[in-house]
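User: structure tokens for this one?
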Amino acid sequence: MADTLIIIAGGIKSITKDSEGNSIVTDNNGNRQTLPPDKNVAIIDNAGNGVIINKQGGETTTTKTKAIATTKREYNLSTTFENTTSSHYGIDQQSIDALKGNYEKLSDSYYVAWKAVVSQQSDVVKAMTSNSTIDEPRIHFIQSASSPMPNAETVTVSGPDNGMTESLVAMYVPADTTRKEQILGKLNIIGYDKKDVTLHIVPVNGIKLTATAEEVQAQLNKIYSQAVISWTVQLDSNLTVKGLNTPFDNGTSGLLSNYTGDMKTLINAKSNLNADEYYLFLVPTGANNTENGYMPRSKQAGFIFIDGSEDNTSIIHTMAHELGHGAFTLKHTFDEYSSLIKGTTDNLMDYANGTKLFKYQWDQIHDPVRVLGLFQSDESAASVDNTAIPKELTVTVNTLALTPDKIFIVAGQSLKLDAKYNKENASEVKFRLTIKPEGGASDILNPTKDWKTVNNNERWVLELNSVQEGKYTLSYKLGTVVSTVDFYVRKEAYDYACQVCGRNLSLSIEQVQTIFGGNSDLTEEQVNLFNASLKVGKFNTCHRVAHFFSQVKVETANFKALQESSKYLFHAALSMYKNYESTKNWYGQVFFETKDYLNYFHYQVYEKTNDSTNSFNGKNHQTYTWKASLLDTIRVPTMYGLEAGYFKKLSYTKAEIGVREKNFFSVIYSNKYGNGSPLTEDGYRYRGQGSIHLTWRNNYRDVSEKCNQLFGTAFDWENNPSDLSTNFKAAIYSGAAYFHYRLKDDLKLLDGEDIQAVSLAVNGGTNGLSDRKIAFNNLIKLMFFQNCKPITPKK
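Assistant:
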């Protein structure tokens, strides 16, 4: 809010600072004016320009209208918001110092709360004003650019589109018109699409749950409705399973990260788990009696440990906590924020029996960070680490012993496997070898039926005269407990091979064309450039190569677009670039009404007219806000119907599109990372180009230097930026070099399956994340890199 309004009649030319840090305004006639210190100042001129200078000297360029508006309002922060008994969805007030960064700060003592609402639906909140001098009938509420709502006991809030935010502002208009309007408080509202989730409760060997499915469902929905989640709960029939350990094997406290043998037995006995549904098995309290439940993050099955003394409330709370881990990959609060002490919050993911969910958890629930594949088997989730081979088991393949450092074998044309298990008091062990051939052929079992039974400390020798390349799994069974050891077999040692499974990583043109959606325009030369850059760049595991191609595939639309597209719908750009400093001037109704937006957008653009006989009608209006600002908002149609209305559809020539494209990129990529102002056109010059769509001047300079260091090239993309879209070697090598640049030459992150972590590290954001996940999972599970294990990064 501005304390002072200054009008520069001669027009604002520049604002500079003198040696003492004072701001100096110079007009177009050369006249200079020193601004008053320690004040928030709004500056305007007759050309419609506006600048706001805060007390610290920070400068924000805006419009005349918006600058004037800041002088007519002031903060009197005395209104807060909370849910009522009629509210359906969560509200999150800032109450923990460690989490302050998750909330907008208006003053040292006022942090803006978050409210969740279903997209395009409504909920209610209660507004409470602590200032007794306020004339409450003169309070009204505004959500973004909607019409003001009068003061009432409850206030209705509307849900924005999924993942979008809007603000509800409490305003006070004094009866004395000489006084400024007052902003009493603010509530940030986020919209989510409602998620429906199904839970199966599976009693094991007669374990009883006295609560009904309906009671469990009601309590889960009471907790998870905070995050706009709806549960359906089914109580399945009793599952009878023999051979479980007594007590139940539930692992060692604090060390368990996957399923134990007993847990695997139950999951296998249940079999045919429904995709996208979750299962909680009710089992006796385990050997580790300190745990009430267990469900690995991002897994489908969990376990609730019951000894009969628990009440239903505590059992259902344990279910809710474990589902937070398994269904939504939530971490404990004290693991997410190291400064939090275990058991000190009322959060569901703490250990103090709380049920609250914070806003950052709402976001994770609706866009979970997948730890591994959601429904993949335990074996495929395991780390590539054969330290899991117990000392009692020895395995050799063609006389080579399997060790943590030896997990693939070059076998030639024949294979001899020698396995022996030796443990005191063990009588016999059963073996079976499963081969998953390269290329997706059916599994091969040895023996083909049942298992091979041998006595303790006796060898099982299996000789194969015909070798299949692929993944080999040696399973060994003691009683009902099955354990596995994986290794890989290759017929030859390839020059460019995966360091995990030995697979040949030099791809053929047919394989790369398939990766890029059947792109028939790819050439042998380009494929050779990919292979050469990845080999020299040490992309030497299947997962590293899969991560590389999944990012390139999405960035370049299957290697068909080596330049970033400017085909943005106007409203989509408003949604995407709302947090960019450079786009602030887009977020004012004047930008739309004066048709200034037509200078920046060319794709499916509609112009507002005064003639109702035009054939398009603007529909589904949405409000977009710049950085949750109280002043910088714009409301525009997001759909246009082919019917009588006040809009006409525009089309442009190639030259006209080029002008708008240059204007667009010059704005969104300005004044940052080495780029100058929009007038320099640096944003256009250093827009996304190459196989990874390298962006910003600093990156063009630094990544070309990294490329030259890695590959011995002599590129200079800062001075020759168009090379990245016209020279295929530059385009392809820039991708590998950028991975090295962003990851500081340490590519270990690429050995795992955390696509979101890779996207954040490489691209600095999650734009297009769902497409990147699909591309990666197709490569690593369905196409050329299947059956290779991830390597879990060591912490």
